[in-house]
Amino acid sequence: MTAARAAGAQEHGAPDAPRPAAGGRGAGAAVLGSGRLLRLELRHNAMLWLLPVAFALFFYNGYREIMALPPMWNLRAMTLQNRLLLDLVIPVTGAAAWMGSREGRRGIADLVAVTARPRWSRQLATWAATTAWAELACLACVAVVYLITARQASWGGPLWWPAVVSAAGVPALTAIGFAAGAWFPGRFVTPLVTVVVFFGLAFGTQAASGDHSYWQVSPLIAGAFDIGAAPGVAAFYPYLPDLSIVQVMFAAGLTVAILGGLGMPVARMRWLAAVVTAAGLAAAGTAVALAGTGRLDPHGMIAIPALHDAAAGQPVRYTPACNRSPIPICVNPAYAGFLPAVATAVGPELTEFAGLPGAPARISQVAPVYQQELGNGINVSAHVSGASEFIVPDPLPGQPGGTSAQFAANLAEGLGLQLASHVILGGADRSAGAAPGQAELAVIAGSVRFPPSVESRDLAPLYGQLLPEPGSPASLAAKRFAALSPAARHAWLAGHLTALQAGRVSLEQMP
User: Fold this and answer.
1) Contact between residue 143 and residue 160 where contact means Cβ atoms under 8 Å apart
2) 214 burial class (0-12, 13-18, 19+ CB within 10 angstroms)?
């Protein structure tokens, strides 16, 4: 009866009922379906249960080492990039491989092949859920380090590019693990691919040589390989993003290429998967080529000509942090926490030479200059003009290999000896090639306090030039002069400095 009425209505020209657009309804249903699938994968993902493992690995390996460093943004941010991915690689790659091999391990590949959603779409949803949990772990670790550093640092702000590189490396790790599990399903694939990726990532940096190495594309390399996280890098000049951009490009291209390769077996999407894979490989290959054109700039960072912005070479503006010693010492505010240690190491010299002819009114820190040598060798120097400028020695206390005693010894050999020799020998007013007298060498040696950690062999190149030979009469006179207080030495120099520089003071006349 109903069919007859419908037929009659059509015969009498009754208008048809409006039909909803199938395309719009299909697109909306696809989006909702993808959202529901992603939500299910997030709730039943192996990476969710491995988050405590990831946090524990980062705490025992990377976090404790990072927090032991001085509270400087450049040191901690660059070390974070070097450690974070290496700590996350085992749980992240393992979880991704386990999720990628799920259908093959359970023998349900043929069963789910008849579902409406293509295999590639299902795999991307599973990979996206795994990556989301892994990114949560990565960003949580970054947030903890940056929040603590923000409370402890004396100056500066976060370096975001090292964090971006670490975040971009996570999808690449999950893509590698997921693809290995999907292509070679089995219980032994997960531990095997995890070990391979871990050692490949860890030892891949060892192949880097010089500033033109293609291996700089590794996301673990935060700067020049032989410098790494150094206090003088990105403290006086802005952090160069050149190498970070290349590393992000490589990680993104590798991720896209691997995910595109997952769609190759799907016949109706093979052409799209091929285009995606080719685009990813092109991006990754371009990044590797750009990394090979890098060069070490004078500020200790890798500059890539195709990406370099000349404006980034301008020094950072800052108000120096100064103390109130007899000769004020001023440092970059990022080094403000070490200003008391600097003043303590050379305090007697500052008291002794303050106000004497040739003594500077203020001593200011200057930026170190880096120069690439053969292989991984890098020469660190400074453009110091007279006793009014100095360079803070590296490493700082708290860095690997850096102790307070070694820091004080480096300051005595550098700033202390520089100040004493400049005042005693007359600095630029002294005739070129004029050899210092024995009394002058004795006063210099008696004025500089060398810590017990400084051995005679460390000072051997200075004997006869700035210091007297050990056991000589001048060395004995230096010990007598060193026994005086800084104030007493200052008083004697105030009355005898001109005669001392003119060579009219003998060793016997020294106090």
Assistant:
1) no
2) middle
